[in-house]
Design goal:
93% of the residues lie in helices and 0% in strands. By secondary structure, the chain is mainly alpha-helical.
């Protein structure tokens, strides 16, 4: 019990921990927005009949998927690092 309390206290006073926590929170928000945009583009792509519009949607969708993948990889790396430090 004391060790857990000391760990929590250490995290409370550690500015790097606060910074990382804030960063992960912001990253999660961005990832949610990207996922929403991905769903919207997928629906628009299914309804699109114009070939140029379809190509545009596909390009945007690829970009968003790559951005989400990078963000998820960063989030996983942060979580792994946090587990290793505990």
């Amino acid at each position: 019990m004391n060790a857990k309390f000391l760990t929590q206290l250490e995290h409370f006073f550690d500015p790097e921990h606060k910074k990382t926590k804030h960063y992960t929170k912001e990253l999660k928000t961005v990832l949610r927005k990207l996922k929403k945009k991905e769903r919207e583009l997928t629906e628009a792509l299914e309804q699109a009949t114009d070939q140029e519009l379809t190509k545009l949607y596909q390009t945007e969708l690829e970009i968003i998927r790559i951005q989400r993948k990078k963000g998820l990889n960063i989030l996983q790396a942060i979580r792994k690092e946090r587990q290793n430090n505990q």
